[in-house]
Specification:
single chain; 91 residues; 2 helices; disordered C terminus
Length: 91
């Protein structure tokens, strides 16, 4: 038996929003609410994991030639907004 394909971050977030809307209405039986809540927790963890993975990838890109994080004046890792594809030349 194959494992179902994992949703993208955007798909998981949309599903999570739909679950929250259903739960907020308060019209579902308790058992259905619990199942939706469990699914919401799973989706929340999935989204959190995908965000952590993206953060790790960005940190790798923000390191200097020696592999050290590039820091700002306060000693925190320097960040910059990601550029949409095709916008690398601007700025």
């Amino acid at each position: 038996m194959t494992k179902p394909e994992e949703p993208t971050f955007e798909q998981a977030l949309l599903q999570l929003e739909q679950i929250v809307q259903k739960l907020e209405k308060g019209e579902l039986p308790l058992e259905d609410s619990l199942k939706l809540y469990e699914e919401g927790i799973r989706l929340s963890r999935l989204c959190h994991g995908k965000l952590e993975e993206a953060e790790g990838r960005i940190e790798v890109l923000m390191k200097d030639a020696r592999g050290e994080p590039v820091l700002d004046a306060a000693g925190r890792p320097r960040t910059r907004p990601l550029q949409p594809p095709g916008d690398e030349d601007e700025g």
